Amino acid sequence: METIRADGRPRTVGKETVMTPWEGQFRDYQEREGIRIPICGEVAWVLPSGRLPYWRGELTHLRYEVGT
User: Fold this and answer.
1) pTM of the full structure
2) What number of CA atoms fall less than 13 Å from residue 60's CA on the CB side?
3) Of the candidates 17, 23, 21, which has an alpha carbon nearest to the alpha carbon of residue 4?
4) DSSP secondary-structure letter at 48?
5) HSE of 5 in the Cβ direction (CA atoms, 13 Å)?
6) How would residue 31 be classed by pLDDT, with cut points 50, 70 and 90?
7) 3-class DSSP state of 65
């Protein structure tokens, strides 16, 4: 997985909620505890004027919990 997209996700514009295209991009895959996962990512609104990132992150700690 490198990119995920949605045609419309709720975005607050002033006092209104507007359905807006959205995407997440992920990179720098590494193996951690036997599973290959992305270490860095960014999510953004896709506006007519271009991408508007609102979150960027980098994995610094990982803890798995397995339910039964």
Assistant:
1) 0.75
2) 3
3) 23
4) T
5) 5
6) very high
7) coil
pLDDT at 56 over 80: yes
Q: Look at the block and give the residue holding tokens 């919990």.
A: 65
Quick check: 36 and 26 in contact, CB under 8 A?
Answer: no
The 10 Å CB-count burial string (b at 16+, else e) for 16-46 is: eeeebbbbbbbeeeeeeeeeeebeebebbbe
Show the tokens assigned to 14. Answer: 């002033």
Rounded CA-CA distance 46/52 in Å is: 6
> What DSSP string runs through 9-44?
EEEEETTEEEEEEEEEEEEEEEEETTEEEEEEEEEE
